[in-house]
Amino acid sequence: MPWRWPWRDMDTVHPITARLRAAALGLCACVLLGAANPATALYDKARTRYQSLKGQSDHQQYRHHWTRVIDSFDVVVSRYPKSPEAPGALFTIAGLWAELYAISKRDGDLKQALDVYARVATRYPKSTLADDALLKQAELRAKQGQDPNAATVTLKTLLSRFPKGDKVPEARALLSSLKSTQPLGSRASNAASPTPLAAATTQPPVPTVASTPSAAPHIVIDPGHGGKDTGALTAKDKAEKAIALAIATRVAEQLRAQGFVVTLTRTADTSLSLSERTGLANQLQADAFVSIHANASRKPDAHGIETYYLDVTHDRYALKLAALENQTNEHEVSDLRLILADLATKVNTDQSYTLARTVQTQLVKAARTRNPKVRNLGVKPSLFYVLLGARMPAILIETGFVSHKQEGTLLVDDAYQTTLADAIAVAVGGHFRTLVARGE
Ligand SMILES: [Zn+2]
Prior knowledge:
Elements (H helix, E strand, L loop, with lengths): L14 H10 L4 H7 L2 H17 L8 H17 L6 H19 L2 H17 L5 H16 L3 H14 L6 H14 L15 H4 L17 E6 L16 H18 L3 E4 L9 H10 L4 E8 L9 E6 L5 H12 L5 H12 L4 H22 L5 E7 L2 H4 L5 E8 L3 H7 L2 H24 L3
Parallel strand pairs: 1-2, 1-3, 3-6, 4-5
Antiparallel strand pairs: 4-6
Helix pairs in contact: 3-4, 4-5, 5-6, 5-7, 6-7, 6-12, 7-8, 7-9, 8-9, 11-18, 15-18
Bound molecules: zinc ion.
């Protein structure tokens, strides 16, 4: 607390007593606090750093100067996510990644920019910057990412969510320029996906997506945990978050090679809330959400692979809510009830189950080529919070137990991770091709 009671040291007054005294005296604590609002102070500090970087072109050539400014804005968002400065700080972070990309040309920087813009619109849907973030995202996708179809999806999201917003004319203009240069459905042959889907398989082409006719399915791959949230740890302190990211990154590459459009919820060791993960998938109107994890147990002999699918059609979920609370500390039960009610009409449980079963079968088969003792723990309905927010078929894969001596060692092995990732990609790809073959 930066201010003190004028007549005595604040430290000697119990905070509640202090508040009561403030009320009794008619003092407005808000005004006093507002004079030294910590979020504003941090935001101003970050802006000063940003302006200083903009003024020093030699500094701009060094990555760490950019990440330092990004970190300064990130402090505002992570410490004061509900402050009025937070949406602007997040929006600026996305812009910084985009500027950095213009210099570095690293794909990772572009992805960060896209991810963070998506986060602005998801996390702050009522902010005046939400539609700006979507427009920026679409522009980046179209111009830098050379992915006009993904840009189209984003623009359509913008137009449907903010039909009266001030970004509508620009969004319409960009949309029509994309239509005239790149017909929908040609994504499979664009620069980002060198192998056309039709060439990668003799199966029929992938199905259409309701929102983007004749476009390839959009799969969101979610590497579990990240940042401060390490997930489970192996005996040698290797973190689940790193295993998940390695496998997920490879799955994404393999699916892109098959002609799918793939978005990773994170591409680096960054923290992301559970609702942001599915929020991104919903915003992209993805066709499937695949979350990748590794398991852990207090029982050292527990091992095996299991896949969970989103199933909200059973009454038993109400009973399990309390148990779920223990798994996540960021939401309250009341939120979950709302989400459940919302989901019940939107999620295709059959498709989630079929996808989970296909993945589980392929994954166990592939894992056994490296480790014949792998246990098939099966396909299970789930109330994992990360799956709950998804409005599309959603699965969560537990690729093995990091707590098991042998399985834990395998899970940090590059070749084993590749084996698992390739199996997941084959299964997800096969799932969508089967849907087409059946005309679904
Ligand atoms: Zn996990």
